[in-house]
Amino acid sequence: MQAATSRPRIALYWASGCGGCEIAFVNLHERLLELDARFEIFFCPCLVDTKRADVEALPDGALALTLLDGAQRSDENVAMAQLLRRKSQLLVAYGSCAHEGCLPGLANLRSTASLLDTVYAGVAEPSRPRARSAVPEGELHLPTLLPRVLPLAEVVDVDYVIPGCPPEPDTLWRALGQMFEDPPPPRGAVLGAGESAVCRECALRREDKTIVRLRRVHELIPEPTRCLLEQGILCMGPATRDGCGALCTRVGMPCIGCYGAPEGVADQGAAMASAVGSILDIEPLRDRSEKEIAAAIDATLDAVPDWAGTCYKFSLAASLLGGRRT
Q1: Which residues neighbour 313 within 8 Å (Cβ) at sequence distance 6 or greater?
Q2: pTM: predicted TM-score of the whole model, two decimal places
Q3: In this structure, are residues 98 and 124 in contact, taking their beta carbons and an 8 Å threshold?
Q4: What is the mean pLDDT of residues 303-324?
Q5: From its phi and psi, is residue 261 left (phi > 0), alpha (psi between -120 and 50) or beta?
Q6: Residue 243 CB partners (closer than 8 Å, separation 6+)
Q7: Which domains are assigned to the chain?
């Protein structure tokens, strides 16, 4: 455990995620020195050798700030979220997994049992993870998976959100500055990013908002200065919060939606479905029968093999659907 200092203490904790949010934190580079001058990094399992017991020993509210990334997938995740909520003055959903469930949230399209069946199918000795296992050194305890993946706000109260998969270091740095402003932002605010859509900061030229077909990114070399969506490439820009600098479209790749929905949009996937529906050019089909029109539209939409994994890649667990199986 670190020696006590007079600096306010902060924590970072990694729940069910990939660790990219910790990399984004390290990618603050020399700005880490500014952060270290103001705060003591008290708890961060992948950076600091402080134990859970050290956090439990703190008075409630002793941590000025906790950045908690990763989705809530197990009872251990929930227990740590509840512990850090008690010990923190500010608890932030840091990154897309904590904010909306992110890619782990796509597991909600299946039951936990079917996921385990898939993962462990074909093993030499069919088995499933056991909650307790006896070993010579004692008894090992394995966390239990929750019935579905949850965003952090469904488990504990969250003060702020920092979006992104992972958040760009500039987004993180802006957010850290915002949350300690006087007066602070309203509770529940999304920090470090904008309020509009990625299209607002995308430099690609927009002309004719109609398309006759959808294409996957490997099917064409796009015109480098023209809107990708207008070229039939499914770009999530119209349904995604700005603030990333439109880094993907800048290099000819479509936005994949990792900053979540813009302000005031309740469901990112539904917003994208609406955007696609508004730009499909059905004028050439107007003289056909309803059955022919429906078949032609279905054929166009079939060009995208996984609509859930495209439009809800980052937001399914927090969507209006909630990723609940029916």
Answers
A1: 102, 103, 106, 256, 257, 258
A2: 0.90
A3: no
A4: 89
A5: beta
A6: 163, 171, 192, 193, 194, 201, 259
A7: 9-104+148-179 (3.40.50.700), 198-318 (no CATH)
